[in-house]
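Changelog-adjacent note: as of this version, every example in the card shows the full chain rather than a window. The one below runs 135 residues end to end.
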Amino acid sequence: MGSHAFVGDSVNPGSGLSLLNINDYIRSMELLLSDPRWLTAHPGHGPDVDRAYVSSWVAETLISKVRRLIRMRSLLSPNWRPLKDYLELLYGSENAFAKWVGARSLLGYAISLARMGLAELNTEAQPWTIRAKEA
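Full-length structure tokens:
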């Protein structure tokens, strides 16, 4: 790594980020930010950024993702519902680009909630469905 970190799509200056598992992303960013050797990050897209920018960008991104994850969990019921129904509920007032990123993120929220034991995701159904996991 040296004084440079090649972060690929895990840091995406000026754009959104789709995560398939929020817990894995948090662990990855903890590992990245705990290494004091790098000063410059090279994202897969966008300009090179410094350590302070990465730290701030990751914090803001995670706050946004966790808020939407909590919001989605609060909207789930014990009944199966198509996953796509949650797009409008989570991104209804957003612009077209935010909804496009949101559609990709929706699957990540569903997977994360299922892995946390808070939801059940049925990938055998067409379209995929999700429900709150009963305690």
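Structural remarks: The beta strands are 4-8, 40-43, 49-50, 81-82, 119-122, 129-132.
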